[in-house]
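Hello again, I could really use a second opinion on something today. I've been staring at a protein lately and its backbone has me curious. Please have a think about how the structure follows from the sequence. I owe you a coffee for this, so here goes:
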Amino acid sequence: MARTKATQILRELNSGKQSIDELKGRQTGKYIYENLFYKIIEHKRKNGREESTLSKVISRNKKYILPAFGKMEIKDIKYSKIKEILNAIFNPNDPYKSRLDTISHLINDINEIFSIAHYDGHIDKNFINNLKKEFPTSRNFKQKHNIDSRLAAITDDKTLAEFLHDLKCDDKMDLQTKRAIYLQILCVNRPINTTSVKWDYIDFQKEIWLIPANQMKMGYSHQIALSSYAIKILKEQQNFCILDNGFVFAAFNKQNHLHKDSLNKVIINLNNQKYKGKITAHGFRATFCTICSQNKATLLQMGISDEVIETALAHKESNAVKFAYERDRATNEQLKRLMQWYGDYLNNLEPFPF
């Protein structure tokens, strides 16, 4: 059997179907699917990719891809087999649970692995990107079924006042998480920036919160003008905080700070799940934007333009060239007026408990 196998390998080498490097790769398992997968994960980890992001990548691949292809050699994995796996994941009968986002992520994950094998010359062609044409995009699929793909958010004063009242009156909620939700509402950050804020980012004297560039989605630093209400929350949290690990909302687990999903979990369970599917932590950014639009005339009289509102939301300028040269679209004073006005607006709907 060994002689027969050796003869077959020699024939492939002589015919050019296999090179010495490819032979070595097969022998060492270099191009075994799961070996390449975990090498990519380790590379991302060394480059500073967040562990929470990596755990999601590992989890979805362990669930759907590695059981089928983990032990296989890259050359032996067929396009039709990958398509078959992805097609089994696709759920076209339920527009709200189509899993198209998961499929898109998996195609990108698989493509990374095949790209390495392709660049090494181990395979002649990387066909993985063609899989994207086999499935509709999540956006097109939702449009076809008339689904609003935006994150749930409050856009009317009555519901907002009800929510603020229910939030204030909930005595069972963890106080630290409650403060984080209030800060999220008042400062209109992305939830991860709220839950991972460090005391080093807060300047009580200047009343600003500076988020470093490496913590921001758009890759540039973001300055938040703190209203009097946000200052009160932070000072209250400072008196409450018993863990000295640098985070404002410190946690007792390995993550070191409150998990961003904690905010949504609390919101979902508030008042017997009254707001489930109606409000998300990220959606308070849309709430802020809507309220500002509805009160544009008042804000313009205060010297607050759309650019100031966009700056408060840390939205990137759509014109790349303009963004490259533009540094300050709004002054600190304008941002301070805007955020104090917004805090006052919310407090008039339902007085804050602090």
In short: The domain at 157-349 is CATH 1.10.443.10 (hpI Integrase; Chain A). The beta strands are 202-203, 208-211, 222-225. The radius of gyration is 26 Å. Residues 17 and 329 are 60 Å apart (CA to CA).
